[in-house]
Amino acid sequence: MNATWWRRNRFWLALLVPLLFLAVVASSFRLVNIYLPWDWTRPIVAHDTSGTLRQDFLGFDDVRREREVRVQVLSAVPQQVHGDAKAAAGAVLWRILLEFEAAPDQFLDSCTIELQDAEGTRYGHEGGMESVDGSGTPWEARLAQRCVPESAPGPTLEPFTGKLVPSPVERSRTWRLEYLIATPEAVEPTALRVGWHYPEYLVLEVP
Amino acid sequence: MRFTRDGLLTAILVVAALFVGSTLTQYLPKPDDFRDDPFPVAGAFGEPVRLRNADITVTKVQAARTVELFGQVAATDGVWLVLDVTYAPRHEPGVLVGSQPLLSAPDGRRFGGLQAITNNCGPANPGLPVACQLPIEVPADALEGLVLTIPAENGQWENDEVTEIDLGITAERAAELRASEAQVTLQEPTVVRP
């Protein structure tokens, strides 16, 4: 192959670069279509204790809906005991007060709330705690993971059809709820994550 | 069109390359052969096994004829192997669902899954590991050489990490376990010091 060959085929050689790029992009369909949409991969970082999550999501009834909800972390206080729960040995319970604001027709049941430390380690609402009376699981604390008021939850999911059932009592535009999350004693949470449907989630600062 | 010596040589080289390539391809492993294979992470009894999301340690193996959990009792004609396990998620909260661990015998038989009694390990938070007892019912003739497999992600037996923990059950130890008539009351998962 001499210089003439390279000159004669320069167009095809140049075309190789975008073609290779397209081949890589085409083979990433599993990442784009399967892995990324089905995990918490799109953070909405508020850089504040308050932020708004906007997303459109596909419901279990195959209907695409818009969601807009504002969340604010009002307080996060460390303590050892709250309600029927106490921190396990070496742990501390963070009692977190959140304020939500959304239109009454927004579907906001079943959320995921986690604390995050500076290294990005996440802590959920179920681990690291025990019942005060020593009976094992602090069910009251563990089952408290809802993002809507119990008496007026707004639309809820019909278990078998996946359709949304309207709330018997209209939910107010703003409401407050409390959560307990256990972390190791040495951990200082820096952020709170809240999300409803993959992949978007809100990242708020902890006051 | 005019045939030249260079042109003929090129054609022969291309055909030869295609022939060699297709012959080699027949002998190379196909993607389908290993596309669904898990990534085994070998470990030993008593040692933490480091999966991508959690450390799992088997600290004790005992045998029982009957196990009890929350007042429910299940007996077996074989052996209930009760594994004391420490489950320590590293970066995010997790739970090891009791139907996930499987015991593999050297002859290929596998035991576990949804049983008369299953016990979860967790939920646990990073830095706050959980100790739990996992019961798995096995036939009396399958104890020797059992290997414990636990997937990193519940239900994900393909394309992901899976433990392969040799429980170290020798023929003598298998005989001891087989002879057990004990009843074990399973403990609820409890947080332990890391």
Account of the protein in words:
The complex is a heterodimer of chains A (207) and B (194). With 207 residues, chain A is α+β, with helices and mostly antiparallel strands. Chain A has 2 domains: 38 residues; 163 residues, no CATH class. Chain A has 4 helices and 14 strands. In chain A, strand 7 and strand 8 form a beta hairpin. The longest helix of chain A is centred in the first third of the chain and has 17 residues. Chain A is elongated, with a radius of gyration of 24 Å. By secondary structure, chain B is α+β, with helices and mostly antiparallel strands. Chain B has a single domain, classed as Sandwich (Immunoglobulin-like). Chain B is 18% helix and 40% strand. Chain B contains 3 helices and 13 strands; from the N terminus they run H-H-E-E-E-E-E-E-E-E-E-E-E-H-E-E. In chain B, strands 2, 3, 4, 9, 12 and 13 form a 6-stranded mixed β-sheet that branches. Chain B has a 5-stranded mixed β-sheet with strand order 1-11-10-6-7, with no helix packed on it. The longest helix of chain B has 23 residues. The model of chain B has no long low-confidence stretch (mean pLDDT 93). The interface between A and B is medium-sized, with 22 and 19 residues.
List the helices and strands and how they pair.
The complex is a heterodimer of chains A (207) and B (194).
Chain A: H1 3-8, H2 10-26, H3 29-35, E1 42-45, E2 50-58, E3 64-79, E4 81-82, E5 85-87, E6 91-101, E7 112-116, E8 122-123, E9 129-131, H4 139-142, E10 156-157, E11 164-165, E12 174-184, E13 191-195, E14 200-205
Parallel strand pairs in A: 1-14
Antiparallel strand pairs in A: 2-3, 3-6, 4-5, 5-9, 6-12, 7-8, 7-13, 10-11, 13-14
Chain B: H1 5-27, H2 31-34, E1 39-44, E2 49-50, E3 54-69, E4 72-89, E5 94-96, E6 102-104, E7 110-112, E8 121-124, E9 130-138, E10 147-149, E11 161-166, H3 171-178, E12 183-185, E13 190-191
Parallel strand pairs in B: 1-11, 3-12
Antiparallel strand pairs in B: 2-3, 3-4, 4-9, 5-8, 6-7, 6-10, 9-13, 10-11
